Amino acid sequence: MRMRVPAVPARDTGRTPGNEGAASDNALGAYLRHCRARLDPSSAGLPAVAQGRRVTGLRREEISFLTGVSADYYSRLEQGRERNPSVRVVEALSRALQLDSDARARLFRLSGINPSLGPEGMSARVHPALLRLLEDSSSAVAYALSPCFDILAVNQHARALLSPFGGESNLVRALFTHPKARAFFTEWPLAAAASVHTLRRNAFQCPDDIDIPDLAAEMSARSADFSSLWESGADGDLGRAYGAIVHPDVGRMELTYTIFSRHATPGQRLLVGAPSSGSRSAQSLTYLTAMSAPAEGNPPA
């Protein structure tokens, strides 16, 4: 269950120096402690612990494990010795603390970040030409990726195709940490290697993109497979997307992908995957999209 916490007034700016509000010297740390105390290991998906646990809520070390953020860095956030976490860190904390949209927005604001820099504002970051291609891909799966593999925008087919990953907004994180990833991607080892090698290439092409090293640090802490591929030093480009997948609702589907990019937005890509006309995959995609579409009069999830 997502926790609801009253939101504070939104800011109009992006990141601002210092802490929010004059009433508290460490509002961010207090809020993190409050959210941490409301969870227990079982609700966070952690192994059961022995009875007699003295800590109320999650330990700092458990938040570190869930997010990939070092325990020392998280402690500094709670203690007010670090007050400007990145968007990537705040997103990871929002997921680990199971915050709903209002609570997540509050955490962003307390961190000095405009909440629109998170997933709700991602489509605004897509190059206009790529966004037009996405919107025109009415018979194919289409989704835009940032240099760190955040899923910035999807069409209806892509939303249905990626539904097994729930609210996960980063393709690398889905590949390496989601329990359904290895069954979903039939060529998981190739997909995983290509994604990490492309991420390394993007790190060189986009040296000012702080989300890439943040993601790499998080994933290296959470996945031995990712850490091994990242430390290998190999880099490359996402030459092709791995189009054979097994969706839990419709079975195997095969898509032929075309990858688009623009020099104005290095590292950003649009992936468009089309099934063969009249194939079982085309029928499955049509059925899957119709099945996942919101009922008439209901907003999309």
From TrEMBL:
Domain HTH cro/C1-type residue range list: 57-104
Region of interest called Disordered, as start-end residue ranges on this chain: 1-23
Domain of life per record: Bacteria
InterPro entries: Cro/C1-type_HTH (IPR001387), Lambda_DNA-bd_dom_sf (IPR010982), MLTR_LBD (IPR041413)
Pfam family membership, one: HTH_31
Protein name listed in UniProt: Helix-turn-helix transcriptional regulator
Species this protein is from: Streptomyces olivaceus
The organism's taxonomic lineage, starting at the top: Bacteria, Bacillati, Actinomycetota, Actinomycetes, Kitasatosporales
